[in-house]
Amino acid sequence: MKTLFLVISTALFIQVKAQNLYSTSNGETSFFSETPVENITAINKFGQAILNTSTNEVVVQMNMKQFDFPNKLMQEHFNENYIESAKYPKAVFKGKINEKIDFSANGTYDISATGDFTLHGVTKSRTLKGKVTVSQGAIAIATDFEVALTDHNIDVPKVVFMKIAQTIQVKNKYNLAPYVSKK
């Protein structure tokens, strides 16, 4: 997985100085499904992200099997029946922050990022809204957005249809530090 992350980051940022790159390999993505019958929540604390502050390009990816559920049976069903993690192991967002941000100045900025979001083998163009906080040389990115299951061809059997929301609430928190090459 780290090899793929390095290949993606190298391909996107090959001619950029290292001081313009910020990354993490322990970003948090959580989701919540609320229905009258049952609530489902899970968190993945191993999301990878890289941000090029010169071009505003951002790439976020995560291994779907790394979502942790309070109920292990839910986790098994998520991976085997819905997300099909063996066939579609990753979710990826590749995009660009639309606003011009002074990444050298401490502060919190409202942002939107437009790009391609791939989940369950289906890529959709998305604009995600969130916040960027710059503080003491570190950058934090937070977003909240929704994912409609039908947008990504995720089928829910009629037997459990009332237990799983058709639109899932997703939250991300990624704390990025200056990228250090592993040479």
Question: What do you see in this structure?
Answer:
With 183 residues, the protein is mainly beta. It has one domain (2-17, 41-178): Lipocalin, CATH 2.40.128. It is 13% helix and 51% strand. It has helices at 2-13, 72-82, and strands at 21-34, 39-52, 57-63, 90-97, 107-119, 122-135, 138-148, 167-178. Strands 1-2-3-4-5-6-7-8 form an 8-stranded antiparallel barrel. A hairpin with a 4-residue loop joins strand 1 (21-34) and strand 2. The protein is elongated. The model has no long low-confidence stretch (mean pLDDT 88).
Explain the layout of strands and helices:
Layout: H1 2-13, E1 21-34, E2 39-52, E3 57-63, H2 72-82, E4 90-97, E5 107-119, E6 122-135, E7 138-148, E8 167-178
Antiparallel strand pairs: 1-2, 1-8, 2-3, 3-4, 4-5, 5-6, 6-7, 7-8
Can you give keywords for this protein?
183 residues, mainly beta, eight-stranded antiparallel β-barrel, single chain, Lipocalin
Residues in helix, %: 10-25%
What would you report as the Rg, rounded to the nearest angstrom?
Answer: 17 Å
Task: Quickly name the level 1 CATH class.
Answer: Mainly Beta
**CATH architect. name:** Beta Barrel
The outline comes out as elongated
Distance between the termini: 17 Å
